[in-house]
Specification:
486 residues; alpha+beta; Outer membrane efflux proteins (OEP); 3 domains; four-stranded antiparallel β-sheet; 12 helices; 4 strands; elongated
Length: 486
């Protein structure tokens, strides 16, 4: 015990702030402890360390971002219904939010953590029990004595003098808030996943239509070459080239049909039910803009926009509060047991005058020797906080990278689409001229086949680039935090 008091006073000094008791007199060896205990009693000081955000571990702006690009409505204030302009896609997202099982699990997990927080909160209050008992014991005279009791009892209620229970409650509250942010992050991810998969399905429908048109053109060319070959006007090489291109188009058609089926399966899983055909039917008219533009803002905005960063911040707060609980374990644990009720030797004597009684049993336990358990718990809590800091910083860095990637895509994918559109126009004209020259006998059929193959490849690349541009809009919206409001 002689080595315990100095260590105990040092732990107390982690929190204590004396308020007007410096001039009070105590024995010299107990003065630090007494001052600290009285300070805690008067000031109600917490042993939880001050929770401060670490410095932002990313640059102050995104790569290539001009100063005026940060203006605009924050993405987190833009509901997903405002971002998604297509009515069919909005209906699909509504179905997914109502039926997706991953989102349902995130919501149920939030409810479970909230219940755990309520348990921790209830630990701060005494638990009253109504009890009744009866006993019969033998006496020294050979007879027996009977006793009956009924009343209210309070068993081992911890008076949270040093904030241990309050720290555990704060940790549970932060965990609940973290689970709430996790649910919001899951909802934003679900909206983005449904939109991205639906875009992929639409792109595969466009590629299917393109492949069918290309296959029909190549089959027409094959029939023409077969006729010319049968009449000795074309070589076997031309015929084999035409057969090869036709077979390649048939293989591409089968591949696109498989990819469309996979996209539909993925969308069905996300939506959580069979997808209505009307919501995934190919577009017959030119599609209007599918999404609204979103401003990028600044990296510091991600701290309030992104639910996963807010989740990591709450987990950091929970780890911080756990340090307070671990520190409080070094202090005396004060508990109270009390009872009030009626006791009588006869059942009929209960509740009569003179049968009422009251008991009060306070208890204080100060850890003297625990083989380093409390210190190990404190070390573990401090290590957990360091882990939470690293996870928080990693969440910010990941968010920065995702936004930077999406901004790079927004800047360059548009240029790529425009270049491929120009190339597709040129290849279409080249194919038309090559076919015309072949029919007039001034060019070989190999020129026609090469132009046809190049046109198909360019049109495929254009469709995939348009898909990448649209999916990049969704990725940017998600990376910036998205809007999870109903």
């Amino acid at each position: 015990m002689g080595n315990r008091l100095p260590r105990f006073s040092r732990v107390v000094a982690l929190c204590a702030k004396p308020v007007g008791i410096q001039d009070m007199t105590f024995p010299q060896n107990l003065r630090p402890v007494a001052l600290s205990l009285l300070s805690l009693a008067l000031a109600g000081c917490s042993l939880i360390p001050v929770n401060e955000r670490p410095p932002l571990p990313v640059p102050a702006s995104f790569p290539g971002q001009a100063a005026d690009q940060a203006a605009g409505q924050p993405v987190a204030a833009m509901r997903w219904q405002e971002f998604v302009a297509d009515a069919r896609l909005r209906e699909l997202i509504d179905l997914a939010l109502a039926n997706n099982r991953d989102l349902r699990l995130a919501t149920l997990n939030m409810e479970q953590v909230r219940a755990q927080y309520q348990i921790r909160r209830a630990d701060q209050f005494p638990t009253l029990n109504l009890g009744a008992s009866g006993s019969r014991q033998p006496t020294s005279s050979g007879g027996s004595s009977t006793s009956y009791s009924v009343g209210l009892s309070l068993s081992s209620w911890e008076i949270d003098f040093f904030g241990r229970v309050a720290s555990l409650k704060e940790a549970a509250l932060a965990q609940y808030l973290a689970s709430e942010e996790a649910q919001r992050a899951a909802q934003t991810s679900l909206v983005a996943a449904v939109a991205s998969t639906w875009l992929s399905l639409q792109a595969n429908d466009d590629l299917l239509a393109l492949t069918r048109r290309t296959l029909a053109t190549r089959q027409d060319s094959l029939r023409l070459i077969q006729l010319r070959f049968d009449n000795g006007a074309s070589s076997a090489l031309d015929l084999r080239q035409a057969e090869s291109l036709t077979a390649a188009a048939q293989a591409a058609l089968a591949q696109q049909q498989r990819l469309r089926a996979l996209d539909l399966n993925a969308l069905t899983l996300l939506v959580g039910q069979a997808v209505p055909d009307a919501l995934v039917a190919p577009q017959t008219a030119p599609a209007p803009p599918l999404f609204s533009a979103v401003p990028a803002g600044l990296p510091s905005d991600l701290l309030t926009r992104r639910a996963d960063i807010r989740q990591a911040e709450q987990q950091l707060a929970a780890a911080n509060a756990s340090i307070g609980a671990a520190r409080a374990a070094f202090f005396p644990r004060i508990s109270l047991t009390a009872g009030f009720g009626s006791v009588s030797n006869e059942l009929s004597g209960l509740f009569k005058d003179g049968s009422w009684g009251f008991s009060l049993s306070p208890q204080a336990l100060l850890p003297v020797f625990d083989a380093g358990r409390n210190q190990a718990n404190l070390d573990a809590a401090q290590a957990a906080r360091a882990i939470a800091v690293a996870q928080y910083e990693k969440a910010i860095q990941t968010a920065f990278r995702e936004v930077a990637d999406a901004l790079a895509g927004r800047a360059k994918l548009g240029e790529q689409v425009r270049a491929l559109q120009a190339q597709a126009t040129a290849e279409s004209e080249r194919f038309r001229l090559s076919e015309l020259r072949y029919r007039n006998g001034v060019a070989s059929f190999l020129d026609v086949l090469d132009a046809q193959r190049s046109l198909f490849a360019t049109q495929q690349a254009l469709a995939l680039s348009q898909l990448a541009l649209q999916q990049n809009q969704v990725a940017l919206y998600r990376a910036l935090g998205g809007g999870w409001g109903e």
